[in-house]
Design brief:
alpha+beta; 7-stranded mixed sheet; 163 residues; Aminopeptidase
Length: 163
């Protein structure tokens, strides 16, 4: 198989694979202070049906990911985690990953997407608001550090609605 030629600054979104786990854990360590996904969790998600791990490969390096869950009895997909390596911010990787996760949810005939985020995570909240997410609930003591979470939701509507 021929190696793909990449232009400098190129970003490829692709399905995650077991070889990505070490890089994904390194992103977790740089992006989060609590509630990090472990190598074991990533491996389990990669093996599980009803999960989609989208990886952003920027300039040949794993630079971010979006992990989406599709539960059988839910009409909503759940964005379980989205992280971008802080060293490559400002390249719109979060935007591209969220757009890809929403498109996958829509293709899987989901009514919309839900997620949880810390109220103080201004960067993430700004992204989600730009995409049309609204606060559905506040969840006290949600995170391992005892902090609350905001549950956000976006309904896709009858068409692709920008997804």
């Amino acid at each position: 198989m021929k190696a793909a030629l990449r232009a400098p600054g190129s970003v490829v979104l692709r399905p995650g694979r077991p070889a990505d786990i070490a890089a994904l854990c390194a992103i977790e360590d740089r992006a989060f202070t609590h509630d990090r996904l472990s190598a074991r969790s990533f491996a389990r998600f990669l093996r599980s049906p009803g999960r989609l791990l989208i990886v952003a490969d920027a300039d040949g390096a794993v630079s971010g990911y979006a992990l989406t869950l599709f539960r059988k009895r839910s009409r909503f997909a759940r964005l379980y985690s989205l992280a971008v390596d802080p060293t490559v911010r400002r390249r719109k990787l979060g935007t591209r990953l969220l757009r890809a996760a929403e498109a996958a949810a829509f293709r899987n005939q989901r009514k919309g997407m839900r997620l949880e985020v810390k109220p103080g995570n201004r960067r993430a909240l700004s992204l989600y608001r730009r995409f049309g997410y609204r606060i559905l609930a506040e969840l006290d003591g949600y995170y391992s550090d005892g902090r609350k979470a905001l549950r956000l939701q976006k309904a896709f509507g009858g068409s692709n609605n920008g997804v």
